[in-house]
Write a structure and sequence with these properties.
The complex is a heterodimer. In chain A, about 30% of the residues lie in helices and about 15% in strands. Chain A is of the alpha/beta class. Chain A has eight helices and seven strands; from the N terminus they run βααβαβαβαβββααα. The radius of gyration of chain A is 18 Å and the shape is globular. In chain A, a hairpin with a 5-residue loop joins strand 6 and strand 7. The longest helix of chain A has 13 residues. Chain B is of the alpha/beta class. Chain B has three domains: about 160 residues, Aconitase, domain 3 (2-Layer Sandwich), CATH 3.30.499.10; about 90 residues, Aconitase, Domain 2; about 180 residues, Aconitase, domain 3. Chain B contains 15 helices and 19 strands. The mean pLDDT of chain B is about 95. The chains are: A alpha/beta, B alpha/beta. Chains A and B meet through helix 4, helix 6, helix 7 and helix 8 of A and helix 2, helix 3, helix 5, strand 8 and helix 11 of B.
């Protein structure tokens, strides 16, 4: 797992479906592992295969279409809703994605993604539509996501939009810092807080 | 300055504010279960860290456990390993485990309140999105991912940005046959499955005040289904009466002192919310969902939206959803045949839910071709149901009373609904494949589910009581 993010330039995998929940991203029956590895092969498992059979890929699902590949997943609004399972973020990252673009992310998924150096980029609804239009015209359309600049740009048209990320999280992602490193570094302050509480 | 209930609790838990970023929030109690904790413990091991405050962690096995023959070893290998891993980790790190066979075992969000661990004014997290349940006591409670589980195990803290605040006021009197599950399904249908994303919700108003603690838990439980970070209800006498005498509730003088403190936990009269929504209790019908997210709900006598009522942008998702469900746009849903009835989950598996179902089905029989599973939320609920003779009522009706666990809410154990079958379920999610690959879930209250169990079709419970 790459433990930092800077600029990601890649073709995209578009899934134009709203309210994609984490049960679709990784069905519950795959949550029985005790390690973080290997979830990628079951990403969108039930949208990808008929009868849970890898020999029966659903031809109309984008992950089975060799035309679309890349490190950027683009989905419609309310991506990652539902269960708090971090396995969803692990599966997406393990399948080779570094960025997920949507017009709206569910909160817990967004935190889980950030904790795994998977960058959630929230764009406006019109800009999301522009991305879908661009990829429909040309499946090889490329997108550049710059974390330092906080911009997302469609290479073919040059159209660009700024995205938000809080300054602390940005520093973490650029430098490969975890929240846990920070929290461990202030354990003394946490103990002091505990002692001062009634 | 006027403060909200949320801010009164939040401010007392801020260890420090990080510049340009989130706050470090102290967590009073951490609930863990077998599915979202193993990787967190592994993380601690990799860093050679202990659990910082093991006495503040409560563990149980719920997601994976079988609901039949719990005294036997778990048949499914991966589930058995995961449950065993939890046991090993709890022993190694000094955490109390209410595991299989323990009289306190049960669904994590049922046992916390039941044992008196859940208290007003505190902060709770769990690697499970339905942690919002505990907010019913006037606490800040929310679901987290496994990396965050590791952070809390290591430091009892989390980095969190203060969410925006929403208040939903439900005022007036509920109609006959309408219960708390209908209130929350109605709210989610009104504001959509993403309508509260980014917000922490406080539920208020006379209809909420009139609810029992268990009914309040049902409402807070489903906050996440509209995207909310959490849900909460100010504590009152109903809360204190429910808590008094419970195992971990304060006792004696400490109890009196705490109750006085808890009485200060409410949103001040002129406290500001970012969004406020008002709902009339009279407008709420017994609800049912027809689609594949909890926002796709209608009154049982209503009709599924026609395609012309759906915005163009949303049409592909809407059509995909109805195709999965095998339902027609514009059709009514009453009278639709069901194959399974599931009464259980952290939303509706408490003793009041079971009593509600029992009082409706007493003397009735289930429809012939319907299978009915009742899965109590905990060993204590199961025990109480047996003591009250509810188990006999279920038996006579042809319902199966199983053993506690998450069960068919998410089908991680053997309790799966077969592909293509319709299940009316008191759980919280109707996502594709949630109850088993290809399973079709219709979310409803325990009362509406019980009505369907008896008639074999989706029914208006108001006509039957």
């Amino acid at each position: 797992m790459s433990k930092s993010i800077n600029i990601v330039t890649s073709t995209i995998v578009p899934i134009n479906i709203e309210n994609i929940d984490t049960d679709q991203i990784i069905p519950a029956r795959f949550l029985k592992a005790t390690s973080r590895d290997g979830f990628g092969k079951n990403l969108f498992r039930d949208w990808r295969y008929e009868n849970d059979d890898e020999n029966q890929p659903k031809k109309d699902f984008v992950l089975n279409n060799p035309t679309y590949k890349g490190k950027i997943l683009v989905a419609a609004k309310n991506f990652g809703c539902g269960s708090s399972r971090e396995h969803a973020a692990w599966a997406i990252k393990d399948a080779g994605f570094d960025v997920v673009v949507s017009s709206f992310f569910a909160d817990i998924f967004k935190n889980n993604a950030l904790n795994n150096f998977l960058l959630p980029v929230t764009v406006s609804e019109p800009f999301l539509q522009k991305i879908y239009d661009a990829v429909e015209k040309d499946a090889n359309t490329s997108i550049e996501v710059s974390l330092p600049e906080q911009t997302i740009t469609i290479a073919a048209t040059g159209e660009s939009e700024k995205f938000d990320i809080n300054a602390y999280k940005k520093t973490c992602l650029l430098n490969g810092y975890d929240d846990i490193d920070y929290l461990l570094s202030i354990r003394g302050e946490i103990e002091k807080f505990e002692n001062e509480r009634i | 300055m006027a403060k909200t209930l949320f801010d009164k609790i939040w401010e007392k838990h801020v260890v420090k504010n990080v510049e340009g970023g989130p706050s470090v929030i102290y967590i009073d109690n951490h609930f863990i279960h077998e599915v979202t904790s193993p990787q967190a413990f592994k993380g601690l091991e990799n860093r050679n860290l202990p659990v910082f405050r093991p006495k503040q962690v409560v563990a149980t096995a719920d997601h994976n456990v079988p609901t039949l023959n719990q005294h036997l070893p778990i048949k499914e290998e991966l589930s058995r390993i995961q449950v065993q891993t939890l046991k090993d980790n709890c022993a190694k790190f000094g955490i109390e485990l209410y595991g299989l066979g323990h009289p306190f075992q049960g669904i994590v969000h049922v046992i916390g309140p039941e044992l008196g661990v859940t208290q007003p004014g505190k902060t709770y997290v769990c690697g499970d999105s339905h942690t919002s349940t505990h907010g019913a006591f006037g606490a800040i409670a929310f679901g987290i991912g496994t990396s965050e589980v590791e952070m809390v195990l290591a430091t009892q803290c989390l980095m969190q940005s203060r969410p925006k605040l929403m208040r939903i006021n439900v005022d007036g009197e509920l109609n006959k046959g309408v219960v708390s599950k209908d209130i929350i399904l109605h709210i989610i249908a009104q504001i959509s499955a993403s309508g509260a994303t980014g917000y922490f919700v406080e539920y208020a108003g006379s209809a909420i005040r009139s609810l029992s603690m268990e009914a309040r838990m049902t409402i807070c439980n489903m906050s996440i289904e509209m995207g909310a970070r959490g849900g909460m209800i100010a504590p009152d006498q109903v809360t204190f009466d429910y808590m008094e005498g419970r195992l971990f509730a304060p006792k004696g003088e400490e109890w009196t002192k705490k109750v006085a403190e808890w009485k200060e936990l409410y949103s001040d009269a002129d406290a500001k919310f970012d969004v406020e929504i008002n709902i009339k209790a009279e407008d709420i019908e017994p609800m049912i969902t027809y689609g594949t997210n909890p926002g796709m709900g209608i009154g049982v006598t209503g009709h599924i939206p026609a395609l012309s009522e759906i915005e163009d942008r949303e049409k592909p998702s809407f059509e995909k959803s109805l195709h999965y469900m095998g339902l027609e746009a514009g059709a009514s849903i009453k009278g639709k045949k069901v194959d399974y009835v599931f009464i259980g989950s952290c939303t509706n598996s408490r003793i009041e839910d079971l009593r509600m179902v029992a009082s409706f089905v007493k003397g009735k029989k289930k429809a012939e071709d319907v299978e009915v599973w009742i899965v109590p939320g905990s060993k204590q609920v199961e025990k109480q149901a047996i003591e009250e003779g509810i188990d006999k009522i279920f038996e006579e009706a042809g319902f199966q009373l199983r053993q506690p666990g998450c069960s068919a809410c998410l089908g991680m154990n053997e309790d799966k609904i077969p592909a293509g079958k319709y299940c009316i379920s008191t759980s919280n999610r109707n996502f594709e494949g949630r109850q088993g690959a290809g399973a079709r879930t219709l979310l409803a209250s325990p009362l509406t589910a019980a009505a369907a169990a008896v008639t074999g079709v989706i029914s208006d419970v108001r006509e039957l009581i």
